[in-house]
Amino acid sequence: MLLAHKNTAKYKKAFDCAKPAIKLDSFIVKNTDDTLNEKGAKADLLLTGYVAEHHIPFIHINHLAEVYQKTFSDSEIAKNLQMKKTKLTYITQDGFAHHEWNEMKSWKFSRNKIENGSSQGVYDAVKSTLTKEDVSMSNILGFASDNYSTLMGNKSGFQKLLINDIPIVFTTGCVCHSFAFCSSHAVKVLPSYLESFLKGLTSYFSRSSKRQNDFNMIQSVAGTKEDKISKLSQTRWLSRENVINVIIEQWDALVLYFQSEAKSIIPLASDFPVIAPENTPEEQNDEWRLFRQYKDIPACSKSIPEFWYSIRNLKDGLDRSKLERLSQFITNLTVLPHSSVCMESIFSQVNCTKTKFPNRLKAETITDRLLAKQAITRKGASCISWEPNAKLIKDVVDGSCHRRYTRRLNFKKAGVNEDDVDIYEIDN
């Protein structure tokens, strides 16, 4: 009966009237140009990030975009890719570096071009930078550098000039360089039987795999880390450190010795008056004793600064921090400089940037290229996993990067220092 009703003229007429209406959004034409422009801008930014991270000379980008266009001929993004050396330059300097510099203003300083390389010249440049940024010299807690006399000289070096202005500032030479010299010379003044002991011990194990296996079994029974005792080398000082570390790990008596030396924290606090809380040595010492006896501190995988900061959350019955002063002091200790490894890393990056192609780069150009790389690496990403933020994409799409680039060129041609111009008023 139902099938028969389906074939009647009355049903067919009613069915045609009940067909769904055309949706309203079908009349709206979507603007695909904006989406395509944003995708193209993202491609430009990713290419720029790749060049910055791997220190590739800018001149190579001229042909790379054309290769992409031929390789990915079916891609609309590749067809519209117009990346040349000039565009790569202003995206790096007026896109990446511009935004990274704005973020850095509140937490880090860039390098200044120093005309006079003497101790006084370097010190004057640092003071000038701090004054320009309205930062008081008294905010300096510590200074670390390599052991070059210009920086660490006791009579006229940078550290001496700094101490003259800030008597309680903490200064130190680079421990990495210092240890290299100390390790090679210190063994010469030690009793000769100590060196003979190390050589005999390492030779005893390095020449016999059976002895090494037997020693590993003893380490397993004792519950210590199974470190292999390598042969002592005279040319690599780190090998001596490794041997000594293994011996120390097996020497339980030394653990008791260091624990006995750590009964009071007052001597340590007195060495760092610049960061120790004022008039609280006894309170710190009481908290140190309490900390050593505390058995409820949970084990965690936090970094050293995070751990010492977290212990201030331990409360007493009145909801007061039990270890606040101790936490504050030890956390402050972690911010003191201890080496110049970070600067050595930057020097290495500069050497990678200055290949035989771009061998005469300006200081500003090198700074901007390093900032572009830092914008990616400080987020824990690489040029593959990094995602451009909305501000960068917008700057490329609406031409803000190019306008800043053109403005810099005009200032340069006119002999005007960009720092003397109110850029905010120009942009608005």
Automatic annotation (TrEMBL):
InterPro entries: RNaseH-like_sf (IPR012337). PANTHER family: BED-TYPE DOMAIN-CONTAINING PROTEIN (PTHR37162:SF1), HAT FAMILY DIMERISATION DOMAINCONTAINING PROTEIN-RELATED (PTHR37162). This is HAT C-terminal dimerisation domain-containing protein.
